[in-house]
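Table 4 source record.
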Amino acid sequence: MCGREIPPKELLLGLDIYFVFYCNYIVMKTIHVANTFNNDNVCLEYLCNLRWHKQPECPYCRSKKTSRKKERNRRSRLQCHDCHKSFSPTVNTIMHGTRIPLNKWFLAVSLIVEAKKSISSRQLARHLDLPVKTAYSLSQRIRKGMLGTKSPFLKGIIEIDETYIVDKPRHPSKENPRKRGRGADKQMVVGMVERGGDMITTIPKNNRCRSKDVRNMILDNVDISKATIYTDEYRIYSHIVKWTKCDYIKHSVKEYSRGDVHTNTVEEFWELIRRAWYGTHRHYSVKYLPYYIAEAQFKYNHRDKKDQLFDKALENITREQCTPSSTFSRA
């Protein structure tokens, strides 16, 4: 069975999260994370190896002449022998200066990446025994770490479509109808997906997307010499055929597929976002919408690499350029 081992029976009773060994990969499930990273020293050692590959580098002078420094009243640190400054593996990351135990950070990362339709801050607070505001700030920082993940150039069959997210009238009426789709007072999100590959999304500025914006998005992310694009008849996509192979689905006449020509793959991704919105978060503010989109995109792009999902998420949130903002207000 490809080296697969069945977990102990006591782990399976009453639990739907556990770790398994499959084809020599350790799938990091939440219970495995909880058992392995049970104190700050273990977490710091893991972050150090993940970030610097066992060769710690001083963030101030870029020297590799470093060593461990013991501390009495705080987490262990590293000492630079060139600039004589001490630093932590969490320096200049979204965990910089945090007072939350690092094992709770690790658990939060695991819970977020394992939740297909995301997880609310209140549920996260219950799991980690944290105040709701603290859990909210922590989850938003983790989502911010997923933001800006660069995907390879898309090629092959690519679908492009847009969706509209955020508020709608609670009680529709003639004066305030519950309008859907284009023309609704909602935030527009444009996405393109390679069939069997990665998803790329963008949120247009001022909630307006024109043909030149679509063109720039395609040229920045698609290998047009090896691509065939399928989309609908919305006018902002009408000029794509001038740059590369393109075919259109006519939704206006209730045509949703014509052989291989359809946009069902990208529509499935939009449905995942809607399910997380309706069932989990109940509300997205325009300000923090990119974080929730980034979370869904990150999990979608790593859907076939679940054994690496936890490590990939940690790599993203420990990137040096990913520093936390000073405050996170409620969305």
